[in-house]
Amino acid sequence: MIEFESVTKSYLGMRPVLDSADLFVGKGDFYYVTGVSGAGKTTIFRLLMRLERPDTGAIRLDGKDVIAMNPNQTAAHRRRIGMVFQNYRLLPPLTVEDNVALPLRVAGWAGGRVRKRVRDCLEWVGLGERRQQIVKSLSGGEQQLAAIARAMVFDPPLVLADEPTGNLDQNMAFQVMSLLQRLNEQGTTVLVATHDLNLIRSFRARTLLIKDRMIHEVRLVDQPGPPAQEIQDAG
After folding, report:
1. pLDDT 10s digits, 25-56
2. Could you tell me if residue 35 is left (phi over 0), alpha (psi between -120 and 50 degrees) or otherwise beta?
3. Residue 35: which of 176, 160, 207, 173 has the closest Cα?
4. Cα 136 from Cα 154, distance rounded (Å)
5. How far apart are CA 24 and CA 88, in angstroms?
């Protein structure tokens, strides 16, 4: 589903974040993307969303050349990707329902079609009874659930979650990860950027490590020790 071929990305002429990096993620896969702060986790997501362009290399989603897309194709492409952020990216003065409905309205949906889709998504994340609440009255965990509902409105085949549990307590973090796992079980491809090894241990999945400006598939080692010893190359 996702292909990076020899992708290099740098900023302001500095040393590249990614340097001739390759990546392949199949349809329906669940992967963690991990690495030290600044390694390039968010850069991978921004490249996939076409918010950034690589210096060199090719990026394909379902076989389509992401880099060559025109504005109309880019808009359609982004509707096929559900994005979940660490800081929720909701509009605090609006209701939960209005926040989740916003992408649909921007895309031209209207009336009962919007209401039904929004309510279905909010019911799925457990916020059906809170749809008329103002977002700023919700807890951080509830706001992240609303953000997941918003990411689901177009029923995207791909969900990218960038440190989705970074601002949450452990119980809420586990609830969020359970929802992402359920999405994957329903056929959605999911990539979760995180540096939380406890989370990776609790919700096992294949793991990509960004190291030395390359993307490596790795396995987690169970014995205790510092992070550098806990993740080792899969071979």
Report:
1. 999 999 999 998 889 999 999 999 999 999 99
2. left
3. 207
4. 24
5. 28
